[in-house]
Specification:
Aldo/keto reductase; alpha/beta; TIM Barrel; AKR2_Oxidoreductase; single chain; NADP_OxRdtase_dom; about 35% helix
Protein backbone atom coordinates (compact mmCIF):
# COMPACT_ATOMS: atom_id res chain seq x y z
CA UNK A 1 0.00 0.00 0.00
CA UNK A 2 1.09 3.55 -0.68
CA UNK A 3 -0.14 6.57 1.25
CA UNK A 4 -0.70 10.22 0.44
CA UNK A 5 -1.21 13.18 2.75
CA UNK A 6 -4.78 14.47 2.84
CA UNK A 7 -4.20 18.05 1.77
CA UNK A 8 -2.41 20.08 4.42
CA UNK A 9 -3.54 17.84 7.30
CA UNK A 10 -1.27 15.32 9.00
CA UNK A 11 -3.47 12.39 7.92
CA UNK A 12 -1.66 9.85 5.74
CA UNK A 13 -4.32 7.90 3.90
CA UNK A 14 -4.18 4.92 1.57
CA UNK A 15 -4.13 5.84 -2.13
CA UNK A 16 -6.89 3.35 -2.76
CA UNK A 17 -9.44 3.69 0.01
CA UNK A 18 -13.09 2.70 -0.07
CA UNK A 19 -16.55 4.20 -0.07
CA UNK A 20 -19.29 2.35 1.76
CA UNK A 21 -22.50 3.41 0.02
CA UNK A 22 -22.87 -0.02 -1.60
CA UNK A 23 -22.66 -1.98 1.66
CA UNK A 24 -25.19 0.35 3.28
CA UNK A 25 -27.86 0.00 0.62
CA UNK A 26 -29.25 1.17 -2.75
CA UNK A 27 -26.81 -0.96 -4.78
CA UNK A 28 -28.75 -4.23 -4.88
CA UNK A 29 -28.47 -7.19 -2.54
CA UNK A 30 -25.56 -7.37 -0.11
CA UNK A 31 -24.77 -9.50 2.93
CA UNK A 32 -23.43 -7.91 6.11
CA UNK A 33 -21.18 -10.89 6.80
CA UNK A 34 -19.52 -10.48 3.40
CA UNK A 35 -19.29 -6.71 3.88
CA UNK A 36 -17.45 -7.21 7.15
CA UNK A 37 -15.08 -9.74 5.56
CA UNK A 38 -14.39 -7.30 2.75
CA UNK A 39 -13.68 -4.47 5.20
CA UNK A 40 -11.28 -6.70 7.09
CA UNK A 41 -9.54 -7.70 3.87
CA UNK A 42 -9.10 -4.06 2.92
CA UNK A 43 -7.55 -3.24 6.28
CA UNK A 44 -5.31 -6.32 6.10
CA UNK A 45 -4.02 -4.94 2.80
CA UNK A 46 -3.17 -1.59 4.38
CA UNK A 47 -6.31 0.44 3.67
CA UNK A 48 -6.70 2.96 6.50
CA UNK A 49 -9.44 5.29 5.24
CA UNK A 50 -13.14 4.72 4.59
CA UNK A 51 -15.83 7.13 3.43
CA UNK A 52 -19.44 6.82 4.51
CA UNK A 53 -22.55 8.94 5.20
CA UNK A 54 -25.40 9.00 7.66
CA UNK A 55 -27.89 8.18 4.90
CA UNK A 56 -26.13 5.10 3.52
CA UNK A 57 -28.64 2.48 4.55
CA UNK A 58 -30.03 4.91 7.14
CA UNK A 59 -26.73 4.78 9.01
CA UNK A 60 -26.12 1.07 8.44
CA UNK A 61 -22.76 1.54 6.74
CA UNK A 62 -21.58 3.60 9.73
CA UNK A 63 -22.60 0.75 12.03
CA UNK A 64 -20.71 -1.78 9.90
CA UNK A 65 -17.60 0.40 10.05
CA UNK A 66 -17.91 0.56 13.84
CA UNK A 67 -17.87 -3.24 13.99
CA UNK A 68 -15.03 -3.62 11.52
CA UNK A 69 -12.75 -1.00 13.06
CA UNK A 70 -13.39 -1.65 16.77
CA UNK A 71 -10.12 -1.27 18.65
CA UNK A 72 -8.44 0.42 15.69
CA UNK A 73 -10.01 3.84 16.01
CA UNK A 74 -6.63 5.63 16.00
CA UNK A 75 -5.30 3.68 13.00
CA UNK A 76 -8.32 3.59 10.70
CA UNK A 77 -9.66 6.97 9.61
CA UNK A 78 -13.32 7.50 8.83
CA UNK A 79 -14.96 10.26 6.84
CA UNK A 80 -18.71 10.61 7.05
CA UNK A 81 -21.24 13.09 5.73
CA UNK A 82 -24.40 14.88 6.81
CA UNK A 83 -27.43 16.94 5.72
CA UNK A 84 -29.18 14.61 3.30
CA UNK A 85 -31.18 13.13 6.15
CA UNK A 86 -33.16 16.38 6.03
CA UNK A 87 -34.32 18.84 3.38
CA UNK A 88 -31.10 19.96 1.72
CA UNK A 89 -32.80 23.09 0.39
CA UNK A 90 -33.92 24.26 3.85
CA UNK A 91 -31.49 26.50 5.79
CA UNK A 92 -32.83 24.92 9.01
CA UNK A 93 -31.00 21.71 8.05
CA UNK A 94 -27.69 23.53 8.57
CA UNK A 95 -28.31 25.25 11.90
CA UNK A 96 -26.09 24.43 14.85
CA UNK A 97 -28.89 22.43 16.48
CA UNK A 98 -29.44 20.32 13.37
CA UNK A 99 -25.78 19.75 12.48
CA UNK A 100 -24.90 18.93 16.06
CA UNK A 101 -27.69 16.32 16.10
CA UNK A 102 -26.43 14.78 12.84
CA UNK A 103 -22.89 14.70 14.23
CA UNK A 104 -23.85 13.12 17.53
CA UNK A 105 -25.93 10.47 15.76
CA UNK A 106 -23.01 9.54 13.51
CA UNK A 107 -20.61 9.42 16.45
CA UNK A 108 -23.00 7.07 18.24
CA UNK A 109 -23.30 4.74 15.26
CA UNK A 110 -19.55 4.82 14.61
CA UNK A 111 -18.85 4.33 18.34
CA UNK A 112 -16.21 7.02 18.22
CA UNK A 113 -15.45 10.20 20.13
CA UNK A 114 -14.24 12.10 17.08
CA UNK A 115 -14.98 12.02 13.34
CA UNK A 116 -11.76 12.29 11.36
CA UNK A 117 -13.35 14.08 8.39
CA UNK A 118 -16.90 15.45 8.54
CA UNK A 119 -18.32 16.45 5.18
CA UNK A 120 -21.27 18.50 4.00
CA UNK A 121 -23.13 16.08 1.74
CA UNK A 122 -23.79 17.83 -1.57
CA UNK A 123 -25.66 20.88 -0.29
CA UNK A 124 -26.88 23.41 -2.86
CA UNK A 125 -24.48 26.23 -3.73
CA UNK A 126 -26.95 28.78 -2.35
CA UNK A 127 -26.77 27.13 1.07
CA UNK A 128 -22.98 26.99 1.01
CA UNK A 129 -22.82 30.66 0.06
CA UNK A 130 -24.80 31.62 3.16
CA UNK A 131 -21.76 30.48 5.13
CA UNK A 132 -23.48 29.57 8.40
CA UNK A 133 -22.78 25.85 8.12
CA UNK A 134 -19.04 26.51 8.05
CA UNK A 135 -19.32 28.45 11.30
CA UNK A 136 -21.11 25.49 12.89
CA UNK A 137 -18.38 23.12 11.69
CA UNK A 138 -15.71 25.42 13.10
CA UNK A 139 -17.43 25.16 16.48
CA UNK A 140 -17.65 21.35 16.34
CA UNK A 141 -13.99 21.20 15.40
CA UNK A 142 -13.00 23.43 18.30
CA UNK A 143 -14.92 21.10 20.63
CA UNK A 144 -13.10 18.04 19.29
CA UNK A 145 -16.23 16.43 17.85
CA UNK A 146 -14.61 16.49 14.41
CA UNK A 147 -10.96 16.49 13.50
CA UNK A 148 -11.30 18.16 10.08
CA UNK A 149 -14.13 19.03 7.77
CA UNK A 150 -14.71 19.08 4.05
CA UNK A 151 -17.43 19.21 1.41
CA UNK A 152 -18.77 16.68 -1.05
CA UNK A 153 -19.74 18.68 -4.13
CA UNK A 154 -21.61 18.08 -7.36
CA UNK A 155 -20.00 20.77 -9.51
CA UNK A 156 -16.73 22.55 -10.18
CA UNK A 157 -18.41 25.84 -9.27
CA UNK A 158 -19.33 24.52 -5.83
CA UNK A 159 -15.83 23.16 -5.35
CA UNK A 160 -14.17 26.45 -6.23
CA UNK A 161 -16.40 28.28 -3.76
CA UNK A 162 -15.55 25.82 -0.99
CA UNK A 163 -11.84 26.37 -1.63
CA UNK A 164 -12.38 29.96 -0.51
CA UNK A 165 -13.45 28.78 2.95
CA UNK A 166 -10.35 28.84 5.18
CA UNK A 167 -10.96 25.64 7.16
CA UNK A 168 -12.16 23.32 4.40
CA UNK A 169 -9.54 20.57 4.27
CA UNK A 170 -10.97 18.25 1.63
CA UNK A 171 -13.27 18.18 -1.37
CA UNK A 172 -15.03 15.03 -2.48
CA UNK A 173 -15.69 15.19 -6.21
CA UNK A 174 -17.00 12.97 -8.99
CA UNK A 175 -13.87 12.28 -11.00
CA UNK A 176 -13.19 9.57 -13.55
CA UNK A 177 -12.40 9.04 -17.24
CA UNK A 178 -16.05 9.87 -18.02
CA UNK A 179 -16.00 12.97 -15.80
CA UNK A 180 -12.80 14.90 -16.52
CA UNK A 181 -13.95 18.49 -16.04
CA UNK A 182 -12.18 18.93 -12.65
CA UNK A 183 -8.78 18.53 -14.34
CA UNK A 184 -8.71 21.99 -15.88
CA UNK A 185 -9.36 24.24 -12.89
CA UNK A 186 -10.58 22.56 -9.72
CA UNK A 187 -7.78 20.05 -9.17
CA UNK A 188 -4.95 22.57 -9.68
CA UNK A 189 -6.69 25.11 -7.43
CA UNK A 190 -7.16 22.54 -4.65
CA UNK A 191 -3.56 21.39 -4.92
CA UNK A 192 -2.31 24.97 -4.73
CA UNK A 193 -4.36 25.60 -1.59
CA UNK A 194 -3.40 22.34 0.10
CA UNK A 195 -6.94 20.95 0.05
CA UNK A 196 -7.26 17.18 -0.34
CA UNK A 197 -9.26 15.57 -3.15
CA UNK A 198 -11.32 12.43 -2.60
CA UNK A 199 -12.29 10.99 -6.00
CA UNK A 200 -15.72 9.39 -5.79
CA UNK A 201 -17.55 7.37 -8.46
CA UNK A 202 -14.13 6.44 -9.92
CA UNK A 203 -15.68 3.62 -11.94
CA UNK A 204 -18.78 5.59 -13.01
CA UNK A 205 -21.14 3.28 -11.09
CA UNK A 206 -19.50 0.26 -12.74
CA UNK A 207 -19.47 1.48 -16.35
CA UNK A 208 -15.67 1.61 -16.34
CA UNK A 209 -15.33 -2.02 -15.27
CA UNK A 210 -16.44 -3.32 -18.67
CA UNK A 211 -18.68 -5.91 -17.00
CA UNK A 212 -22.09 -4.76 -18.22
CA UNK A 213 -23.09 -6.70 -21.32
CA UNK A 214 -26.06 -5.89 -23.61
CA UNK A 215 -29.34 -6.61 -21.86
CA UNK A 216 -27.91 -6.24 -18.34
CA UNK A 217 -30.51 -5.16 -15.78
CA UNK A 218 -30.23 -3.93 -12.20
CA UNK A 219 -32.20 -4.99 -9.15
CA UNK A 220 -35.21 -2.87 -8.19
CA UNK A 221 -33.51 -1.45 -5.07
CA UNK A 222 -30.34 -0.51 -6.95
CA UNK A 223 -30.03 3.23 -7.61
CA UNK A 224 -28.66 2.41 -11.06
CA UNK A 225 -32.19 1.27 -11.80
CA UNK A 226 -34.29 3.85 -9.97
CA UNK A 227 -32.06 6.90 -10.51
CA UNK A 228 -30.80 6.34 -14.05
CA UNK A 229 -32.38 9.63 -15.13
CA UNK A 230 -32.15 11.48 -11.82
CA UNK A 231 -35.56 10.44 -10.54
CA UNK A 232 -34.49 10.38 -6.87
CA UNK A 233 -31.37 12.58 -6.58
CA UNK A 234 -28.80 14.33 -8.73
CA UNK A 235 -28.39 12.37 -11.94
CA UNK A 236 -24.64 12.93 -11.80
CA UNK A 237 -24.42 10.44 -8.91
CA UNK A 238 -25.46 7.59 -11.20
CA UNK A 239 -23.14 6.59 -14.05
CA UNK A 240 -21.37 9.96 -13.54
CA UNK A 241 -24.27 11.64 -15.34
CA UNK A 242 -24.34 9.46 -18.44
CA UNK A 243 -27.38 7.44 -19.39
CA UNK A 244 -26.71 3.72 -19.02
CA UNK A 245 -27.00 2.96 -22.73
CA UNK A 246 -24.71 5.83 -23.70
CA UNK A 247 -22.24 4.80 -21.01
CA UNK A 248 -22.16 1.24 -22.33
CA UNK A 249 -21.57 2.54 -25.84
CA UNK A 250 -18.72 4.77 -24.72
CA UNK A 251 -17.24 2.05 -22.54
CA UNK A 252 -16.77 -0.16 -25.59
CA UNK A 253 -14.48 2.52 -27.01
CA UNK A 254 -12.22 2.25 -23.95
CA UNK A 255 -11.20 -1.40 -24.14
CA UNK A 256 -7.66 -0.33 -25.03
CA UNK A 257 -6.96 1.16 -21.58
CA UNK A 258 -6.73 -2.35 -20.13
CA UNK A 259 -3.67 -3.14 -22.26
CA UNK A 260 -0.74 -3.64 -19.89
CA UNK A 261 -2.94 -2.80 -16.92
CA UNK A 262 -4.72 -6.14 -16.40
CA UNK A 263 -8.31 -4.82 -16.54
CA UNK A 264 -10.43 -1.77 -17.27
CA UNK A 265 -11.16 -1.45 -13.56
CA UNK A 266 -7.52 -1.18 -12.59
CA UNK A 267 -6.73 1.09 -15.51
CA UNK A 268 -9.60 3.45 -14.63
CA UNK A 269 -8.42 3.75 -11.04
CA UNK A 270 -4.79 4.17 -12.14
CA UNK A 271 -5.79 7.07 -14.40
CA UNK A 272 -7.22 8.93 -11.40
CA UNK A 273 -4.18 8.22 -9.22
CA UNK A 274 -1.93 9.64 -11.93
CA UNK A 275 -3.21 13.10 -10.93
CA UNK A 276 -1.05 14.46 -8.10
CA UNK A 277 -3.88 16.57 -6.67
CA UNK A 278 -5.83 13.42 -5.78
CA UNK A 279 -5.39 12.32 -2.16
CA UNK A 280 -7.18 9.02 -2.67
CA UNK A 281 -9.69 7.24 -4.83
CA UNK A 282 -12.73 5.72 -3.08
CA UNK A 283 -14.37 2.97 -5.14
CA UNK A 284 -17.29 1.11 -3.67
CA UNK A 285 -17.47 -2.62 -3.04
CA UNK A 286 -19.87 -5.36 -2.02
CA UNK A 287 -17.51 -8.27 -1.52
CA UNK A 288 -13.91 -9.28 -0.91
CA UNK A 289 -13.22 -10.00 -4.58
CA UNK A 290 -14.10 -6.42 -5.52
CA UNK A 291 -11.84 -5.06 -2.78
CA UNK A 292 -8.88 -7.07 -4.04
CA UNK A 293 -9.60 -6.21 -7.68
CA UNK A 294 -9.66 -2.50 -6.92
CA UNK A 295 -6.44 -2.72 -4.89
CA UNK A 296 -4.79 -4.22 -7.96
CA UNK A 297 -4.71 -0.71 -9.41
CA UNK A 298 -1.71 -0.05 -7.16
CA UNK A 299 0.36 -2.58 -9.10
CA UNK A 300 -0.23 -1.39 -12.67
CA UNK A 301 1.89 1.22 -14.47
CA UNK A 302 0.94 4.86 -14.86
CA UNK A 303 -0.49 6.15 -18.12
CA UNK A 304 1.96 7.74 -20.52
CA UNK A 305 1.65 11.41 -21.40
CA UNK A 306 0.49 10.38 -24.86
CA UNK A 307 -2.26 8.16 -23.46
CA UNK A 308 -3.33 10.90 -21.06
CA UNK A 309 -3.63 13.29 -24.00
CA UNK A 310 -5.55 10.69 -26.00
CA UNK A 311 -8.07 10.20 -23.20
CA UNK A 312 -8.47 13.93 -22.70
CA UNK A 313 -9.19 14.51 -26.39
CA UNK A 314 -11.55 11.53 -26.52
CA UNK A 315 -13.49 12.87 -23.52
CA UNK A 316 -13.89 16.32 -25.05
CA UNK A 317 -15.00 14.93 -28.40
CA UNK A 318 -17.22 12.06 -27.30
CA UNK A 319 -18.31 12.34 -23.67
CA UNK A 320 -18.54 15.86 -22.27
CA UNK A 321 -21.69 16.86 -24.19
CA UNK A 322 -23.57 13.82 -22.86
CA UNK A 323 -22.99 14.45 -19.14
CA UNK A 324 -26.16 15.38 -17.27
CA UNK A 325 -26.62 17.02 -13.88
CA UNK A 326 -24.48 19.62 -12.13
CA UNK A 327 -20.85 19.42 -13.14
Amino acid sequence: MRYRTLGNTELKISEVSFGTWAIGGSWGSVEDSESLRALQTAMDQGVNFFDTADVYGGGHSEELLAKATAGRETDIHIATKFCRGGDIQDPATYTEKAVRAYCEASLKRLKRDTIDLYQIHCAPLEILQQGLVFEVLDKLQAEGKIRYYGVSVESVEEGLFCLEQPNVRALQVIFNIFRQKPVAELLPAAYAKGVGILARLPLASGLLTGKFKPGFTFEADDHRNFNNNGEQFNVGETFAGLGFAKGQELGLQLDWIAEGKESMTRAALRWILDHEAVSCVIPGFKNTAQVLDNLGALQVPAFSAADQARLSAWYQENVHAHIRGSY
